[in-house]
Amino acid sequence: MDYLVVDVAIVGAGPSGMTAACYLAEDDFKVAVFERKMSVGGGMWGGGMMFPRIVVQDEGKEILDKFGIRSDKYEAGYWTADSIESVSTICSKTVKAGARIFNLISVEDVMIREKGVVEGLVLNWSAVEMAKLHVDPLTIKADMVIDATGHDCEVVNVLLRKMGNVLNTPTGGIMGEKPMWAEAAEESVVNNTVEVYPGLVVAGMSANAVMGSPRMGPIFGGMLLSGRAAAKLIAGKLG
Ligand code: 48F
Fold first, then answer.
1. For ligand 1, is residue 185 a contact (CB within 6 Å)?
2. At 129, which CATH number?
3. Pick from 193, 228, 173: which is nearest to 56 by CA?
4. pTM over 0.85
5. pLDDT (tens digit, 9 = 90+) per residue, 191-217?
6. Is residue 112, in this structure, part of any structural domain at all?
7. Contact (Cβ atoms closer than 8 angstroms) between residue 159 and residue 139
8. Dihedral in degrees, nearest 10, Cα atoms 62, 63, 65, 67
9. What's residue 215's pLDDT?
10. Phi first, then psi: what are they for 216, rounded to 5°?
11. Model confidence at 114: pLDDT above 90
Protein backbone atom coordinates (compact mmCIF):
# COMPACT_ATOMS: atom_id res chain seq x y z
CA MET A 1 0.00 0.00 0.00
CA ASP A 2 2.90 2.36 0.78
CA TYR A 3 4.29 1.97 -2.72
CA LEU A 4 1.21 2.58 -4.88
CA VAL A 5 2.62 6.05 -5.62
CA VAL A 6 6.39 6.45 -6.03
CA ASP A 7 8.83 8.91 -7.54
CA VAL A 8 10.66 6.28 -9.58
CA ALA A 9 9.63 2.75 -10.51
CA ILE A 10 12.39 0.49 -11.84
CA VAL A 11 11.71 -2.71 -13.74
CA GLY A 12 14.41 -5.33 -13.21
CA ALA A 13 16.76 -5.80 -10.26
CA GLY A 14 19.85 -6.56 -12.35
CA PRO A 15 23.06 -4.55 -11.92
CA SER A 16 21.83 -1.49 -13.83
CA GLY A 17 18.42 -1.38 -12.12
CA MET A 18 19.79 -1.78 -8.59
CA THR A 19 22.57 0.75 -9.16
CA ALA A 20 20.06 3.32 -10.41
CA ALA A 21 17.84 2.56 -7.41
CA CYS A 22 20.69 3.02 -4.96
CA TYR A 23 21.75 6.43 -6.30
CA LEU A 24 18.13 7.65 -6.44
CA ALA A 25 17.37 6.44 -2.92
CA GLU A 26 20.50 8.16 -1.66
CA ASP A 27 19.07 11.35 -3.16
CA ASP A 28 15.89 10.75 -1.12
CA PHE A 29 13.61 9.77 -3.99
CA LYS A 30 10.97 7.17 -3.23
CA VAL A 31 12.05 4.20 -5.33
CA ALA A 32 10.45 0.83 -6.00
CA VAL A 33 12.18 -1.93 -7.96
CA PHE A 34 10.06 -4.76 -9.39
CA GLU A 35 11.80 -8.04 -10.14
CA ARG A 36 10.15 -11.03 -11.79
CA LYS A 37 12.40 -13.67 -10.27
CA MET A 38 12.81 -14.80 -6.69
CA SER A 39 16.40 -13.55 -6.66
CA VAL A 40 17.82 -10.17 -7.55
CA GLY A 41 21.03 -9.67 -9.56
CA GLY A 42 19.94 -10.59 -13.10
CA GLY A 43 22.89 -11.84 -15.14
CA MET A 44 25.55 -10.75 -12.69
CA TRP A 45 25.61 -13.91 -10.55
CA GLY A 46 26.86 -15.95 -13.50
CA GLY A 47 29.96 -13.80 -14.10
CA GLY A 48 31.66 -14.86 -17.34
CA MET A 49 30.35 -18.25 -18.47
CA MET A 50 29.63 -19.23 -14.85
CA PHE A 51 33.16 -18.44 -13.65
CA PRO A 52 32.18 -16.25 -10.70
CA ARG A 53 34.16 -13.20 -11.75
CA ILE A 54 33.07 -9.98 -13.38
CA VAL A 55 35.29 -7.53 -15.21
CA VAL A 56 35.04 -3.77 -14.91
CA GLN A 57 37.06 -1.06 -16.55
CA ASP A 58 38.65 1.87 -14.66
CA GLU A 59 35.50 4.03 -14.90
CA GLY A 60 33.38 1.22 -13.47
CA LYS A 61 35.79 0.57 -10.60
CA GLU A 62 34.75 3.89 -9.12
CA ILE A 63 31.29 2.40 -8.58
CA LEU A 64 32.66 -0.88 -7.18
CA ASP A 65 34.57 1.26 -4.67
CA LYS A 66 31.45 3.26 -3.83
CA PHE A 67 29.64 0.04 -2.95
CA GLY A 68 32.69 -1.32 -1.08
CA ILE A 69 33.18 -4.29 -3.44
CA ARG A 70 36.74 -5.61 -3.43
CA SER A 71 38.51 -5.80 -6.80
CA ASP A 72 41.85 -6.99 -8.21
CA LYS A 73 43.78 -5.34 -10.97
CA TYR A 74 43.91 -7.63 -14.00
CA GLU A 75 45.80 -5.49 -16.51
CA ALA A 76 46.03 -1.80 -17.36
CA GLY A 77 42.49 -0.40 -17.34
CA TYR A 78 40.71 -3.60 -16.18
CA TRP A 79 39.71 -4.98 -12.79
CA THR A 80 37.98 -8.18 -11.68
CA ALA A 81 35.61 -8.74 -8.78
CA ASP A 82 33.74 -11.69 -7.31
CA SER A 83 30.28 -11.88 -8.87
CA ILE A 84 28.63 -13.15 -5.67
CA GLU A 85 30.15 -10.40 -3.54
CA SER A 86 29.15 -7.87 -6.22
CA VAL A 87 25.46 -8.79 -6.40
CA SER A 88 24.98 -9.26 -2.66
CA THR A 89 26.76 -6.03 -1.79
CA ILE A 90 24.94 -3.93 -4.40
CA CYS A 91 21.62 -5.36 -3.19
CA SER A 92 22.40 -4.73 0.47
CA LYS A 93 23.55 -1.15 -0.14
CA THR A 94 20.53 -0.44 -2.35
CA VAL A 95 18.03 -1.63 0.22
CA LYS A 96 19.84 0.13 3.07
CA ALA A 97 19.85 3.36 1.04
CA GLY A 98 16.04 3.18 1.19
CA ALA A 99 15.01 1.63 -2.15
CA ARG A 100 12.31 -1.03 -1.85
CA ILE A 101 12.76 -4.17 -3.95
CA PHE A 102 9.67 -6.25 -4.69
CA ASN A 103 10.68 -9.67 -5.99
CA LEU A 104 8.36 -12.19 -7.66
CA ILE A 105 6.46 -9.36 -9.36
CA SER A 106 6.25 -9.10 -13.16
CA VAL A 107 5.59 -5.85 -14.96
CA GLU A 108 3.11 -6.57 -17.73
CA ASP A 109 2.15 -3.11 -18.99
CA VAL A 110 2.57 0.62 -18.55
CA MET A 111 -0.03 3.22 -17.62
CA ILE A 112 -0.47 6.03 -20.17
CA ARG A 113 -3.38 8.46 -19.95
CA GLU A 114 -4.35 11.69 -21.69
CA LYS A 115 -0.92 13.34 -21.31
CA GLY A 116 0.76 10.69 -23.47
CA VAL A 117 3.36 10.11 -20.77
CA VAL A 118 4.27 6.89 -18.97
CA GLU A 119 2.69 7.51 -15.59
CA GLY A 120 3.03 4.15 -13.96
CA LEU A 121 3.25 0.37 -14.24
CA VAL A 122 0.88 -2.55 -14.34
CA LEU A 123 1.98 -5.37 -12.03
CA ASN A 124 1.08 -8.94 -11.42
CA TRP A 125 2.48 -11.82 -9.39
CA SER A 126 5.10 -13.72 -11.40
CA ALA A 127 3.29 -16.91 -10.35
CA VAL A 128 0.14 -15.65 -12.09
CA GLU A 129 2.15 -14.85 -15.22
CA MET A 130 3.84 -18.27 -15.20
CA ALA A 131 0.56 -20.09 -14.71
CA LYS A 132 -1.00 -17.98 -17.49
CA LEU A 133 -3.96 -17.27 -15.23
CA HIS A 134 -6.49 -14.65 -16.19
CA VAL A 135 -6.10 -12.43 -13.12
CA ASP A 136 -6.51 -8.67 -13.27
CA PRO A 137 -3.39 -6.77 -12.25
CA LEU A 138 -2.56 -3.90 -9.91
CA THR A 139 -1.43 -0.47 -11.12
CA ILE A 140 1.06 1.84 -9.44
CA LYS A 141 1.83 5.47 -10.24
CA ALA A 142 5.37 6.76 -10.83
CA ASP A 143 6.79 10.09 -11.97
CA MET A 144 9.48 8.23 -13.91
CA VAL A 145 10.00 4.61 -14.95
CA ILE A 146 13.26 2.85 -15.81
CA ASP A 147 13.32 -0.16 -18.12
CA ALA A 148 16.27 -2.17 -16.72
CA THR A 149 14.98 -5.51 -17.97
CA GLY A 150 18.16 -6.49 -19.85
CA HIS A 151 18.40 -7.84 -23.39
CA ASP A 152 14.62 -8.18 -23.80
CA CYS A 153 13.78 -4.51 -23.05
CA GLU A 154 10.35 -5.71 -21.95
CA VAL A 155 8.81 -2.40 -20.90
CA VAL A 156 9.74 -0.74 -24.18
CA ASN A 157 8.40 -3.76 -26.06
CA VAL A 158 5.00 -3.55 -24.40
CA LEU A 159 4.87 0.20 -24.96
CA LEU A 160 5.47 -0.28 -28.70
CA ARG A 161 2.95 -3.08 -28.94
CA LYS A 162 0.31 -0.74 -27.57
CA MET A 163 1.39 2.62 -29.02
CA GLY A 164 3.27 1.91 -32.29
CA ASN A 165 6.67 3.36 -33.16
CA VAL A 166 6.71 6.30 -30.76
CA LEU A 167 10.26 6.08 -29.39
CA ASN A 168 12.97 8.67 -29.44
CA THR A 169 15.06 6.49 -31.84
CA PRO A 170 15.88 6.94 -35.56
CA THR A 171 12.93 4.72 -36.62
CA GLY A 172 10.70 5.28 -33.62
CA GLY A 173 11.03 1.55 -32.95
CA ILE A 174 13.49 -0.75 -31.20
CA MET A 175 16.75 -0.66 -33.18
CA GLY A 176 17.78 -4.13 -31.93
CA GLU A 177 20.87 -5.41 -30.15
CA LYS A 178 23.95 -5.88 -32.37
CA PRO A 179 26.60 -8.63 -32.19
CA MET A 180 29.37 -8.76 -29.59
CA TRP A 181 31.76 -5.80 -29.48
CA ALA A 182 32.66 -5.30 -25.85
CA GLU A 183 34.63 -2.06 -26.04
CA ALA A 184 32.04 -0.24 -28.17
CA ALA A 185 29.13 -1.62 -26.13
CA GLU A 186 30.58 -0.49 -22.81
CA GLU A 187 30.81 3.06 -24.07
CA SER A 188 27.50 3.15 -25.90
CA VAL A 189 25.48 1.76 -22.98
CA VAL A 190 26.10 4.96 -21.04
CA ASN A 191 25.33 7.22 -24.02
CA ASN A 192 22.20 5.17 -24.74
CA THR A 193 20.84 5.74 -21.23
CA VAL A 194 18.16 8.21 -22.31
CA GLU A 195 14.46 8.97 -21.99
CA VAL A 196 13.15 6.98 -24.97
CA TYR A 197 9.55 8.05 -24.40
CA PRO A 198 8.20 10.69 -22.01
CA GLY A 199 8.47 9.22 -18.52
CA LEU A 200 10.46 6.15 -19.61
CA VAL A 201 14.26 5.85 -19.36
CA VAL A 202 16.25 2.82 -20.58
CA ALA A 203 19.28 1.52 -18.67
CA GLY A 204 21.73 -1.37 -18.96
CA MET A 205 21.40 -3.89 -21.80
CA SER A 206 17.89 -2.63 -22.45
CA ALA A 207 19.44 0.70 -23.51
CA ASN A 208 21.77 -1.01 -26.00
CA ALA A 209 18.97 -3.20 -27.36
CA VAL A 210 16.61 -0.26 -27.87
CA MET A 211 19.25 2.01 -29.38
CA GLY A 212 20.87 -0.63 -31.65
CA SER A 213 24.25 -1.10 -29.98
CA PRO A 214 26.32 -4.27 -29.45
CA ARG A 215 26.41 -6.71 -26.53
CA MET A 216 29.48 -7.02 -24.31
CA GLY A 217 29.76 -10.30 -22.40
CA PRO A 218 31.02 -10.38 -18.82
CA ILE A 219 32.20 -6.78 -18.62
CA PHE A 220 29.82 -5.17 -16.16
CA GLY A 221 31.22 -1.68 -15.65
CA GLY A 222 28.85 -0.30 -18.28
CA MET A 223 25.84 -1.69 -16.40
CA LEU A 224 26.88 0.13 -13.23
CA LEU A 225 27.71 3.33 -15.10
CA SER A 226 24.43 3.19 -17.00
CA GLY A 227 22.51 2.76 -13.74
CA ARG A 228 24.25 5.79 -12.32
CA ALA A 229 23.58 7.76 -15.52
CA ALA A 230 19.86 6.88 -15.36
CA ALA A 231 19.71 8.06 -11.75
CA LYS A 232 21.45 11.32 -12.62
CA LEU A 233 19.14 11.97 -15.57
CA ILE A 234 16.03 11.36 -13.45
CA ALA A 235 17.30 13.32 -10.45
CA GLY A 236 17.91 16.24 -12.83
CA LYS A 237 14.37 15.99 -14.22
CA LEU A 238 12.54 15.53 -10.93
CA GLY A 239 14.70 18.08 -9.11
O1 48F B 1 19.56 -8.99 -17.43
P2 48F B 1 19.91 -8.12 -16.28
O3 48F B 1 21.09 -8.49 -15.46
O4 48F B 1 19.99 -6.61 -16.83
P5 48F B 1 21.12 -5.48 -16.85
O6 48F B 1 21.12 -4.72 -15.58
O7 48F B 1 22.49 -6.28 -16.92
C8 48F B 1 22.83 -7.05 -18.04
C9 48F B 1 23.87 -8.05 -17.64
O10 48F B 1 23.41 -8.89 -16.60
C11 48F B 1 24.35 -8.92 -18.78
C12 48F B 1 25.25 -8.23 -19.71
C13 48F B 1 26.46 -7.52 -19.14
O14 48F B 1 27.49 -7.65 -19.99
O15 48F B 1 25.03 -8.24 -20.88
O16 48F B 1 23.24 -9.48 -19.46
O17 48F B 1 20.93 -4.75 -18.11
O18 48F B 1 18.66 -8.03 -15.29
C19 48F B 1 17.37 -7.75 -15.76
C20 48F B 1 16.38 -8.18 -14.69
O21 48F B 1 15.09 -7.76 -15.08
C22 48F B 1 14.14 -8.77 -14.73
C23 48F B 1 14.90 -10.07 -14.96
O24 48F B 1 14.33 -11.14 -14.22
C25 48F B 1 16.31 -9.69 -14.49
O26 48F B 1 16.52 -9.99 -13.12
N27 48F B 1 12.97 -8.59 -15.59
C28 48F B 1 12.91 -8.70 -16.94
N29 48F B 1 11.68 -8.42 -17.39
C30 48F B 1 10.92 -8.13 -16.30
C31 48F B 1 11.74 -8.24 -15.14
C32 48F B 1 9.55 -7.78 -16.09
N33 48F B 1 8.69 -7.66 -17.12
N34 48F B 1 9.11 -7.57 -14.83
C35 48F B 1 9.95 -7.69 -13.77
N36 48F B 1 11.27 -8.02 -13.91
1. no
2. 3.50.50.60
3. 228
4. yes
5. 999 999 999 999 999 999 999 999 998
6. yes
7. no
8. 170
9. 95
10. -140, 5
11. no
Q: What is the pLDDT of residue 217?
A: 86
Mean pLDDT of 119-141: 98
- Higher pLDDT residue, 180 or 115? 180
Supply the residue whose CA is at minimum distance from atom 1 of ligand 1.
Answer: 150
Contact 12 CB / ligand 1 (< 6 Å): yes
CA of 204 to the centre of ligand 1 (A): 8
The total number of structural domains that make up the chain:
1
Q: How far apart are CA 205 and CA 94, in angstroms?
A: 20
Evaluate: CB of 13 within 6 angstroms of ligand 1. yes
Domain of 227 in residue numbering reads as 5-43+84-238
Q: Is the shortest distance between the CB of 222 and ligand 1 below 6 Å?
A: no
The CA distance from 199 to 141, in Å, is: 11
For 69-78, write each residue's pLDDT tens digit: 999 999 999 9
With beta carbons less than 8 A apart as the criterion, state whether 215 and 178 touch: yes
pLDDT one-digit tens code per residue, 10-44 = 999 999 999 999 999 999 999 999 999 999 999 99
173: Cβ below 6 Å to ligand 1?
A: no
Query: Which phi and psi (to 5°) does residue 168 adopt?
Result: -85, 60
φ/ψ of 221, rounded to 5, equals -55, -40
In the reported structure, the alpha carbon of residue 236 is separated from the centroid of ligand 1 by a whole-number distance in angstroms of 25
Distance (Å, whole) CA 129 – CA 225: 31
Write the residue with the smallest CA distance to atom 33 of ligand 1.
Answer: 107
On whether residue 184 sits in a domain, the answer given is yes
Pocket test for ligand 1, best of 19, 22, 35 (most atoms within 8 A of CB): 35
